[in-house]
Amino acid sequence: MASKYVSKFSELGSGLTWRVILAIAYTAFVFIPTEIYLSLATGTSPTGVPWFALLLMTQIAIMTGSRLTKQESTLIYSFAGGLFIGPIFINRIFSLWFRTSYITAAFGLVEEMIPSWFAPPLATGVWESRTFLSPSWTIPVLIPVTMTVVLGLGSISLGLFAKKIFIEVENLPFPVEKMQAEGILVLVEQSQRKMEVMSMAAVVGSIVGFVVYTLRFIATALELSIPLVPIPWIDYNLSIEKIFPGASFGIATDIFSYAVGFILPFYVVASTFAGSFAVYFIGNWLSATKGLSLGPWWTPGMDIATILQRSIMYVWALPILGIALAAGIIPLLAQPRILRQAFGSFGSKKPSSAFPMLTLLPYLGASLFSTILIYVLAPDFPIAVAGLMNMGFPLVLTLISVRIRAVTGQAFSPGNVNELVVYASGYSGTNAWFTIHNNSWASQMSGFTWSSRFFVAKETETSIRSLIGTFLITLPIVIGISFIFTQLFWSLAKIPSELFPGANIFWPIQATYIGLWTSRPPGLFNPTLILAGFAVMTLISILPVFVSAIPTGLPIAIAAGATLNMPSAFAMLIGSIAAALTSRIYGEKRFNEYKLIIVAGLGMGQGIAVVIGVCIALVAGSMWVLPY
């Protein structure tokens, strides 16, 4: 099986053309301002930008009489909306604001304790002038930009490693990526029937997106008082807390949460829901009523977002870390054949079957660079701890996150691992804490994104070389555009301000977490909880080895559920039930032929509605600050 996919990769075509570079540059110029504004106005990023960009470029190519190839379309989809790095520069403004925040002072962090490489001192005057064009910004900006490039190269390396194991050897399904590839091929091939189905789904998605998102953007921009659909979920906590104190329950309002359940196997969705329900409903309820936590965390009247944040902080952060570690590692250890197949060909004389060790050099180099940088910025932090974390954790994170994505279609984030490591090391200074928040740690590297891109490339017969080449060529373009538009927005008005209300809401929360970790509250780190989570998940993970009736993806789905909020898990379950009913009505064969097309259309339609809404808000906001 492995040789089949290796040979298929070797026969793929290149899509790296001048049309692709121009298309990505154009979409970056159009959509990056939208994404920057949305992150500052609402604290979120728009969905569907890759679909909107690909649809736009496909239609432009058709009108000019030269259709895009499926390889060109794959590269446009992969990078038109996947290189948003505006947060690099937005986070620099946040770091400067952090110096002025009352929250910073509340945690006892006086300005002298905040290093100049994290943010320029207020005495430089850049807070009042609102400009990056000052020598005092050189180091604070250079560090995260450099690390973005370094970590990007390291992530490609880990992505190639994950491709070998999960795509070529294990041949895992990657359901979301398969849907993405199907959508790309439909747009390129222009199959009449599939285009009709996709278009109808896109209309449904755009209608839902208009009601949920576009109306909100318009109402906010024009200061209209109209009923709006809650985002991201309808909260029922107040209805259940009298019977189940601390439990969370709600219904997601994002259509894609339902669509994911539409394409995944029912057992995966049911297991994911079971994991989420066990943690955030039953577990939270028992924790709040029995005092099973690191500190009091629940009070009556809390909404889902607050309960999610506080229960993770005081109850679930450490057990989930153990669960995630076991979910990623134990299935591999329980099936040593997979590792033997992945690594056993290192000494092979056949280039097509060997995994070249040289591809790991960027990952190792990025880890070493990060370790040296942390030592320079925080010489009082143990370099051995930083080195072990930077060298080991990215590999573990890749094994965990890619496997969960490949089986369940869910994204996985381990949470505050860097903070836990610094805390557990017994570090008593402050500089190491700020290295976490200026992008200095290589431990955030992962092959997650690149393994997804590689799977889509396999499905669309796009060469890996052209995929990596496009990234290297367009990355400087995207960095430049992100810098320019962040500066323009900052020149337009203060951040935070009424024009950027999201920063007013979410920046204080972010500052609270930084202050909380940096002030090192006692009793927060208990390794026993990690071991407990690891032990429980180990028992679940080895069940398929001994009980053949249990699907191998079930443990991963349960682990994914432990990190997924209840409204999203419930929406997936509804989507999966709808899929089962649709399959019964129209027949399984016909349903399987069109289900990915339907989901792709829904995602595209919602994305278009979101982008239109953000553009309206951006134009209205710009008009509002004009001097006439």
The neighbouring-strand order within the major sheet is: 1-2
Helix content: over 70%
Mean pLDDT metric: 80
What's the multimeric state? single chain
Overall 3D form: globular
Main sheet? Answer: 2 strands, antiparallel
What keyword list fits this structure?
mainly alpha, 26 helices, globular, disordered N terminus
Question: What can you see in these coordinates?
Answer:
The protein has 628 residues and is mostly helical. It has 26 helices and two strands. The chain has helices spanning 2-10, 18-41, 49-63, 70-80, 86-100, 102-106, 126-129, 138-169, 175-189, 192-222, 237-240, 255-263, 266-290, 304-334, 336-343, 361-377, 383-408, 417-424, 431-436, 448-459, 464-492, 501-518, 527-546, 554-562, 566-586, 588-624; strands at 233-235, 250-252. Strands 1-2 form a two-stranded antiparallel sheet. The longest helix has 37 residues, at 588-624. The chain is globular, with a radius of gyration of 24 Å.
Summarize the structure.
This protein has helices at residues 2-10, 18-41, 49-63, 70-80, 86-100, 102-106, 126-129, 138-169, 175-189, 192-222, 237-240, 255-263, 266-290, 304-334, 336-343, 361-377, 383-408, 417-424, 431-436, 448-459, 464-492, 501-518, 527-546, 554-562, 566-586, 588-624; strands spanning 233-235, 250-252.
